[in-house]
Amino acid sequence: MVGVRDTTTGRELAAHAAMATNPWTRFRGLMLRRSLPPGEGLVIRPCGSIHMMFMWFSIDAVFFDRENRVTKVASGVRPWVGFALGGKGAWGVVELPRGAAEGTEPGHVLEFVEA
Questions:
Q1: Which of 24, 43, 87, 101 is most solvent-facing, going by the fewest CB within 10 Å?
Q2: Where does the chain have alpha helices with state H?
Q3: Which pLDDT belongs to residue 32?
Q4: The model's pTM
Q5: 5-27 burial, b for 16+ CB within 10 Å, e for fewer?
Q6: Beta carbons within 8 Å of 110's beta carbon, 6+ residues apart
Q7: CB atoms within 10 A of CB 65
Q8: Domains in the chain with CATH codes
Q9: In angstroms, what is the C-alpha Rg of the chain?
Q10: pLDDT given for residue 115 in this prediction
Q11: CA 65, CA 72: separation in Å to the nearest integer?
Q12: Cis peptide bond upstream of 46, omega within 30
């Protein structure tokens, strides 16, 4: 678990984010979960895009590059029909509850802290 903070704004995006770094955890992601409580998230690395198949709720997705600089923010990605591309240089994504990425923009820098 890690905490995720937008160092540009000083906002905490997730107090507790699970890490998905192997093929199975990246594939599984948040599929089949019924919700993502406030303060929680999922960091997927490497990852340049996401899909929302087998998802039951909308999320915010914050894509970042190898220097943890935000490449794209996708707000309110819808279940079942949604997908999001991370943009040029995207290497990972933080999946968050809908609305949690408010104020985070491309160019901001993320910090990942062991929780």
A1: 24
A2: 23-28
A3: 86
A4: 0.96
A5: bbebeeeebbbebbebeeeeebe
A6: 4, 5, 6, 7, 13, 62, 64, 68, 69, 70, 94
A7: 16
A8: 2-114 (2.60.120.1140)
A9: 12
A10: 72
A11: 10
A12: yes
- Rounded-to-integer distance, Cα 30 and Cα 39, Å: 15
Question: Tokens in use for 74?
Answer: 């996708």
> What would the pLDDT profile of 14-69 be if each residue is shown by its tens digit?
999 999 999 999 999 999 899 999 999 999 999 999 999 999 999 999 999 999 99
pLDDT at residue 8 is higher than 90 = yes
* DSSP secondary structure letter of residue 78: P
Which single residue is written with the structure tokens 């704004």? 9
Residue 49 makes CB contacts below 8 A (sequence gap 6+) with: 83, 84, 85, 86, 90
